[in-house]
Amino acid sequence: MTKDASFKKVVRRHAEETGQRYTEALTDLEGLGARMHHEPAPERLLAHLRDRYGIDPVAAAKLSVHKTYVFRIDRNDGGPWIARAFPPARPRSGAEGDAAILKFLERQDYPAERLAVDDAVSDLGDSAVLVTRFVEGVQLPHGAAKFAMMGELLGRLHTLPFDDSVARPGGASGEDPSREGAPRQDLLAALSFLDAVDTKVAAADRERFEQLRDQVRSVDDGHGLPEGLLHGVDRRRR
Asked: Which residues of 164-176 are buried (b: 16+ CB within 10 A; e: fewer)?
């Protein structure tokens, strides 16, 4: 069997297991790298913020090695902002959901980032941009005191009165920005990661690879469990 034929077989299997058409599954696998890697040009982002909000930004500095779309925006006319120019594969509704949750947390007087402006979500080409106010950092206490503080904050978060403004599917880590929502999206993303490299797996590693793939396919996605507002990694999720 040729390499091309092997990959087509993988795509057909991926389509069957994810409920996609063949062309959708092909795009899912072949477009994975482009979806995950997004590094906006700082100059373009500054120009967008200047035009959109009438501010005077002077510098955009990346804040993360892994989240290359998160920038600190320094300004001549006020305090710094944080701008997240999300990958185009992430729907705008995801950024709008982030903004809704931050508004909810502000109404509850919960310590979190605050939106920089009321209209905090905008479009930069195919990318949704969310702007918040920069939070000055302080040194956390060490040892038990740090974990007690974090536990207290998480406890407060989990007991906040729930309302429909933050009622969106969440829990997925968002490694693939097109897979956002409940934990099942993480499993579908993991399956895509594995299937995208299936034809590159050496014969000596095939058994372990298939075992890992079977484990991903059989993981409980938590469907039907009680839901509440939880702390995510970078974006806020339900």
From this structure: eebebebbbbbbb
The per-residue pLDDT for 232 is 61
What is the b/e burial string over 34-44, where b = at least 16 CB atoms within 10 angstroms of the residue's CB?
A: ebeebebebee
| Other CB atoms within 10 Å distance of the CB of residue 151 | 10
Phi, psi of 111 (to 5 degrees): -70, 110
Record the tokens describing residue 53, joined without a space.
């909000």
Q: Could you tell me if 198 and 212 are in contact, meaning their C-beta atoms sit under 8 angstroms apart? A: no
Q: What is the mean pLDDT of residues 104-109?
A: 95
pLDDT tens digits along 167-219: 888 888 888 999 988 899 999 999 999 999 999 999 999 999 999 999 999 99
When the candidates are 3.30.200.20, 3.60.20.10, 3.40.640.10, 1.10.390.10, the CATH number that belongs to 42-133 is 3.30.200.20
pLDDT for 237 equals: 38
Compute the distance between CA of residue 203 and CA of residue 41 in angstroms, rounded to an integer: 41
Residue range(s) of every CATH 3.30.200.20 domain in the chain: 42-133
The per-residue pLDDT for 99 is 96
User: How many Å apart are CA 123 and CA 184, to the nearest integer?
Assistant: 28
Angle at 209 between CA 205 and CA 214, to 5 degrees: 155
